[in-house]
Amino acid sequence: MAESSTGKPFTAEDILGPVGAATAVISGDGIVLGWTATAERATGYRADEVVGRPATRLLAECEAAELDAWAARARAPWSGVARIRRKNRAEARMTVEASPLHGDNRADWFVTVTDPTGAVSWSPPRSAAAAPPMAHSPIGLSIWDTDLRCVWLNRTAEHQDGVLRRRRLGRLMTEVQPGEMGESIVVAMRQVLDTGEPLIEQEYTWRIPGEDEERLLAATYFRLDGADGKPIGVVSMATDIENSLVRQHLLILGQAGNRIGTTLDVMRTAQELADVAVGRIADFVSVDLGETVPLGEEPLQRLASSDSSIPVFRRAGMASIHEGEPEALWQIGEAVFVPPQSPFNRGLVSGQTYFQPVVDTSRGGWLEQDPNRARIIRETGIHSLIIVPLLARGTLLGEAVLVRNENKTPFSRDDLLLVEELAGRAALSLDNARRYSRERAASIALQRNLLPHNLSGGEAVELASRYLPADTHDGVGGDWFDAIPLPEARVGLVVGDVVGHGINAAALMGQLRTAVRTLADRDLPPAELLARFDRLIPSITEQDTDTEGFAGPVMTCTCVYAIYDPDTGTCTIASAGHPPPAVLHPDGSVTFPDVPPGPPIGVGLMSYEPHALQLPENSILALYTDGLIETRTEDLDTGMHRLRAALTGPRTPLEELSTRVIDTMTPRSRSAMVPDNERSVYADDVTLLMARTRLKSPPG
Question: For 139, which DSSP code?
């Protein structure tokens, strides 16, 4: 049992003191009619010393003159602050609230007086020094009796939940906070009353009256026992954890998960890391990547170096709370030079974080070897530094540098742990982007090498082609096109699209292109060529079965094959699940021939029908893949309508027309000025093969 300074145990009266507000009834002419025990304890006056006498005796002289004006006010509730004179002649500023009482033609007032700090309303007789610290505690403290009515609270508790003292005192928890949350708090308090076991840091949300948002609080409840050992109430200690350090760190990590690694672009991912950290953790952040992450620039080893400065990084991202990034020595894309013995270079060897909460600018330090960085530190006021390696899957990708200058608080150990966790997550995203970029570059190189470089239509047609690889997470697709010379000056035109993306699709595309060329050399009609092509697919995919008998992913393709005869102007076309070709006629009209759509190649049905049409000289036949006309937001019909509009227009050379079609059909996907969410609408390769027809001699 706790004891007072006299050595005697505290009683319930000592601990709770005169809880609640001092109350009285005063007549309309200022005479005290009723007096309570709480009023007696708050002022020191007994009932027989004040009842029937003017209430002005209870006010300081400077306040007494205002009582008459107050009593003469309109009959409406009133509140204010007044200086109350206690019996020992001490004065205290108190909150006075008055409510009119109606009945029997009387004009009486019900008056309550409370201490705005909470200190006077709870003043244990033998522990006078205990009340002010509790009243002014930064932790929200409130006391609830065994019926779970609020009997005391300090100012912090009042501010935490926005419920005024007069609306809280004497009320049940379910009245103060209606609904499920109030009921759950009652359950917790009742458990503490019944068991005597405290509940530590119970999180709950509190809706502030008049506000839509909820506040997150953590409360600890413990039972309050009287001198006889029986429970007399529950104490609630609440803290607002909405802005706590741990919560803020968790929020930052949560935001990082949503904002870092949104694309598989290395530079964008590095910039996202800088953007997330700046303003939340640091005032300036730079992300520098080493040679393990090629950025398409000249290798760092080829750049000139010296004994005091070597290029070990290339800047991939940075952000500052100050306009223009005054803390930066290098811009994005530039090589970053560091002294060989600096902590920047040592981190590459050790893979350890360098943590300097207070930057050491004294003589003999590492900054003496780096005068340019020392100058920036002096000019911008940098005083705290963290250099954290970006390490993923055993590969050191680079470093992130975080500094503070505007924020005068040095980095703490908690900040260091947060930075290392953030860097670890970002490094995984960077490594994913690095691997994707490497495979995509290999796929594009393979695909471009497998596509024809010098198309020739001979005497039959003039040709122009365009190929744009997809910019998606799945990598480039398996589009291909070709022009195959045939006997009697004819030409075979083919466009195909392998299902799937990545290097496997590109490799299969090369095999299928070779297969089509082999079949075309036999001078087969389009429908028969596609049927035999369909028959070949199983033998091609069987070659990809591994040594354990497991086949790779089954891939099919769509394909359109056309043979144009310049002697007759006849074009025979067959399609294997491919979009219909477009024809721009010499009169400027655009049509889409009704080519029967056969099944995709690889299904095994081997059933295709030819479609023949006459093409006058200077007609333009456009073969393409679905990536040209189909997007995630538009269907094929809408895309074909746009293609018709793109082909319609002034007569231009075929190369210019091809460029116009591509620019018209895919402007957003190829523009660097367009946000990523719009650019990603186009997620497939785009292939276009255009042929302007010629005639060897006029028909007839």
Answer: S
Which residues face 624 on adjacent strands? 688
CB of 693 closer than 8 Å to CB of 563: no
Dist CA 150 CA 235 (whole Å): 10
98 and 85 in contact (C-beta within 8 Å)?
no
Backbone angles phi, psi at 319, to 5 degrees: -155, 150
Q: How many residues does the chain have?
A: 700
CATH fourth-level superfamily of 262-439? GAF domain (3.30.450.40)
All structural domains of the chain with their residue ranges = 21-114, 131-242, 262-439, 451-693
Residue 177 corresponds to which tokens in the numbers above? 């906070």
**Class assignment of domain 131-242?**
alpha beta
Position 409, amino acid:
T
Phi and psi at 249, nearest 5°, equal: -65, -40
Structure tokens that stand for 173 in this block: 């928890």
Residues 198 and 221 sit within 8 Å (Cβ to Cβ): yes
- The pTM of the full predicted model, rounded to 2 decimals, is 0.53
CA–CA distance, 175 with 179 (Å, rounded to integer): 9
Q: So what CATH class is 21-114?
A: alpha beta
Look at residue 633 and give its three-state secondary structure: coil
Rg of the chain, C-alpha, whole Å? 41
Residues 447-497 have pLDDT tens digits of 677 778 788 899 999 999 998 877 554 556 678 899 999 999 999 999 999
Distance CA 177, CA 161 (A): 9
Fold for domain 451-693? Answer: Phosphatase 2c; domain 1 (3.60.40)
Flag whether pLDDT at 522 surpasses 70: yes
Which residues, in sequence order, are bridge partners of residue 479?
A: 497
The reply to whether 21-114 and 131-242 are identical in fold is: yes
Residues 673, 676, 677, 680, Cα dihedral to 10°: 110
Question: What is the distance between the alpha carbons of residues 578 and 623, in angstroms, rounded to a whole number?
Answer: 10
